[in-house]
Amino acid sequence: MSHSIAIIGASGYTGAELIRLLATHPSFEIKALAANSKAGQSLGAVFPHLRHLDLPDLVTWEEIDFDAIDLCFCALPHKTSQEVISKLPKTVKIVDLSADFRLRDPEDYRKWYGNAHGATEMQEEAVYGLTEFYREAIAEARLVAGTGCNAATGQYILRPLIERDLIDLDEIILDLQCGVSGAGRSLKENLLHAELSEGTNAYAVGGTHRHLGEFDQEFSALAGRPVEIQFTPHLGPFNRGILATAYVRGEAEAVLEALQQAYAEEPFVVVLPMGETPSTHHVRGSNFVHIGVVADRRPGRVIVVAALDNLCKGSSGQALQNANLMLGVDETAGLMLAPCFP
Amino acid sequence: MSHSIAIIGASGYTGAELIRLLATHPSFEIKALAANSKAGQSLGAVFPHLRHLDLPDLVTWEEIDFDAIDLCFCALPHKTSQEVISKLPKTVKIVDLSADFRLRDPEDYRKWYGNAHGATEMQEEAVYGLTEFYREAIAEARLVAGTGCNAATGQYILRPLIERDLIDLDEIILDLQCGVSGAGRSLKENLLHAELSEGTNAYAVGGTHRHLGEFDQEFSALAGRPVEIQFTPHLGPFNRGILATAYVRGEAEAVLEALQQAYAEEPFVVVLPMGETPSTHHVRGSNFVHIGVVADRRPGRVIVVAALDNLCKGSSGQALQNANLMLGVDETAGLMLAPCFP
Amino acid sequence: MSHSIAIIGASGYTGAELIRLLATHPSFEIKALAANSKAGQSLGAVFPHLRHLDLPDLVTWEEIDFDAIDLCFCALPHKTSQEVISKLPKTVKIVDLSADFRLRDPEDYRKWYGNAHGATEMQEEAVYGLTEFYREAIAEARLVAGTGCNAATGQYILRPLIERDLIDLDEIILDLQCGVSGAGRSLKENLLHAELSEGTNAYAVGGTHRHLGEFDQEFSALAGRPVEIQFTPHLGPFNRGILATAYVRGEAEAVLEALQQAYAEEPFVVVLPMGETPSTHHVRGSNFVHIGVVADRRPGRVIVVAALDNLCKGSSGQALQNANLMLGVDETAGLMLAPCFP
Amino acid sequence: MSHSIAIIGASGYTGAELIRLLATHPSFEIKALAANSKAGQSLGAVFPHLRHLDLPDLVTWEEIDFDAIDLCFCALPHKTSQEVISKLPKTVKIVDLSADFRLRDPEDYRKWYGNAHGATEMQEEAVYGLTEFYREAIAEARLVAGTGCNAATGQYILRPLIERDLIDLDEIILDLQCGVSGAGRSLKENLLHAELSEGTNAYAVGGTHRHLGEFDQEFSALAGRPVEIQFTPHLGPFNRGILATAYVRGEAEAVLEALQQAYAEEPFVVVLPMGETPSTHHVRGSNFVHIGVVADRRPGRVIVVAALDNLCKGSSGQALQNANLMLGVDETAGLMLAPCFP
Lengths: 342, 342, 342, 342
Fold this sequence. Notes:
The structure is a homotetramer. The first copy, chain A, is α/β, with parallel strands linked by helices. Chain A contains eleven helices and 14 strands.
């Protein structure tokens, strides 16, 4: 039995990554690809790496016949996403990859994104898409909100530790390096090869990155009290990958054990032996997360490092994993590709 | 029904690429992984990107029980390869990824590789592994010799043109850029990131590159007369990919038509519309070849450009495609992964 | 004694490179920096790598007091450049880095650039800025036209060979790889890090690249008959550097000797020993050109490879070398920086 | 008046960087270049980017006539360095770029480097080479110990804050990304382009990096009590550059003011306006340090980010700055090169 899939926002990198993954999915069939600014073009014109696939040309999302669609991935920019999704028929299941439905509180949304939310009802309905921690709700959901890629990485490290009350909640620092595809296919000077290759820099320093909205919401809910972490992202000269280095207070053995426990049954989360740390090279192009724990020389301080591919596990891979759950197929379908190294 | 696979030389890049591809193959099961210098180690220790796979530890090739093996990939350096392969039981099918069985004439082998061939009988038996052109023989073969990655790229451009007598055989120039993984996982100064990134250089200039042995053999056989092309490879600051730019004399329309004809039924070779040229970015991590034809401003001169991934279609992907044929399974099994872009 | 310098178009890469070089020039003083779209900003805001320099803020070019300027570098896009330069007082010496005054024939200009030339008188007056070959005329000139960066690289290889009648004029192929800074600081999708890193492609294939206008003009003039070469540029995943690989018909010894002779007294052109070829890594950030000659295995065919830094020797370094000549100071002033490797 | 310079260890990256800088130094003349493993070769054979320089061939250090040398740079690996330096005549001034004379306490040396120190007397004599903080002592010294490149970066951030008692000494975290040239020209698998490009990883996690010996020594001395920071370096896919992100407890305004004060007269240290942070791109190839301060959203927490070029300001540039002081010439001689961007 096959399922009919639509993708809105197919001309961006997360759209392309969805199509890459769906190319080998056993039961999902792409029935419609929308990208309003490029409607009428073939997918191969927009993404030549996908030219070998036999897929429908790009249309506007308004042209899609949603009666024939089981599930729709929406890979639009935030704000546009809520506008479009609120107009889709309620019969179609939706995985949204934008930021629009990640935050449950309209005030939080306004605070981090600068505009009032235009679909607060759906905001309430949406299930937060961090698969490993919202699996049951996702399976039942009509609308799933894909997480921020940095937000996902940090939570893979910190959720099990907060949940088990193993670390000092007031002393969490998350230092992170993100590859450039996280910024999307947008024409900005700092994303040019000439500006970005051969060096690195921090950005959104001091607590201004929007993914902090997700951290605050999720960690505070888990802890039952407000939790505010420090978070500094850096932009690295590579296309795919996030490496998050977390500084926490606790005991390394307990931290490792908690992570091992939390992810023992997870198909995509690999916890490394004590003292080993991961590399983004080794998850590139895949849906895997690698996590490692090291005790600092200073007692009671622990460093935890996690690596994932921002486009895959941090975005489109997660979206597909959730879609699998929502449509009742094997959660790992289309996602067992091994990382592409070197 | 499943087939039992062994890989000798599993600690190099082509070995790793084989394992990456086999990870989603529907019917091949890896039963043994050999790497004599790393025997006893887990695969995850040698290639952390493959640590999620449930695979046997590395052994020496002598430890493999070949009675239980249907097909063995041999990804050793040349010379070592012939020594090992000549000791394997004749019952096991072999796809060799080294240079040892590519040249049919022992004298040619000595000329290009500097040593006498130690297994001339097998050299005679081996089928040249350029799938699209040796498909029937490969399906029947016991020993298939994987082609050089540069040699494959050049042949995808030139074979149909030579075969159809469309170009001047004395005026063929092949200019090529190859990614660094083509040099393998070897500790050489010029392969260090600090030496190789952020620039490019030619190497083996003037007709000394060993893949010329394959070009000479194949093109001369096709033409029924000696053909010697000019060939200049360059080393580019990227890991995967070969871009070959061929300068030939003929008519662009006829050239394009010949390529379209030759590859019309091929699952992995995409011929672009007249005037478009390919990019290695768009085949990275995949088994696809993209080929484009452009007429030069000077009448009677044509430029043909081809792009493939040296580790995949140029080596391990080709090897798997051949193995599929040899074991009678769908030729594309395990190989339909879309390119990994960006 | 010092000279007063202005730069128009200071917010692009060639403008920045001029300022980098002038930072250690013994006698040139930057008096004005113009960039109309960024007028009012500090240079450090536009190019943070130059923030340590004590320089005037950006102004519009109309605001510059040209009475106080000895020489003006003009680093604007073509077409804009001719419009601006035709309005500058005739008392100021000008080195133009655009394409506007490279071609002497207005028809050639229209053919390659698509618009009529608006300052044909100045077009006639301008001296072609390939220093080593136009040194005397440059020293006397009021207006010098900087060459195309690819055009410079090809001419360093081919001029001495054509001039000495050493090669077949109908059989010249120039295959070239160019770093991305050659495309300037422009917001184009294909210049994004995510699109360009980790791969390569050809562009302007078949004889459509505008620098062919320069090749045709210069080589035909040298030969006293029309010369049309074949030229294929590739875009490489590195910021600085051009590697040109030329295929010519002639004798390698004679070719090498001609190059050695031509450049024996040149401070910036290094001819390598027979059989050695250069690398862009080894000229990065400098005004040097490295050239190497190799005999092909096929008699009578020679490969010549040249490397230079497109932003420096291919553009701003050349411009400064010419300015030095025009103002009667040591030709190498400010230009002896060693390449930046690794 | 000129000074005669020797370099021992001229075949490594820091040796090459010294030669690059000395190429435009107004009064230092290179009289001898030693590299025992490559003695007899020309410098151009070992470093083709320096082939245009008219320099002596490589010799063994034993062959150098030290009577004719004013100052010797020693760019050998640690341990070898102390063995060689202890045999040099006491009349020659020495700037050592190894780790051998950075730590004053022989026990500290043994702890961090694993072997007993073989020249403890000289260890005592050596002046720590962080120019801005040891300027007077350096000017008088016979033997100056270049600092670790990471150690320098961290100290530029932290010394003024510790000295002025502005931050909590028990709560300092330094997270750092270092380019690959910091690892030298050594043949290690993880330094290959294929392994290192397109991703990042942490290393020496948990307080095991040797530069912590320097931090502990210097910060404890400054504070008058033991100070132990947390320090996590990462290896980034770029050749040059260190970006250090420090998490400290204090007030951002006071922190910024302290840094502005400390570096007000420094020619190479640029403190950015409040809220701006630096990028390694903008110091590449230069002797400049850029430092920026941002207040975190959590009161009392401050992030300070510093960028420098590990090979230049972090190593050879610092060495030259110190040599200038030791020989009484302008401290900035040979060091005012603007960064090479893009």
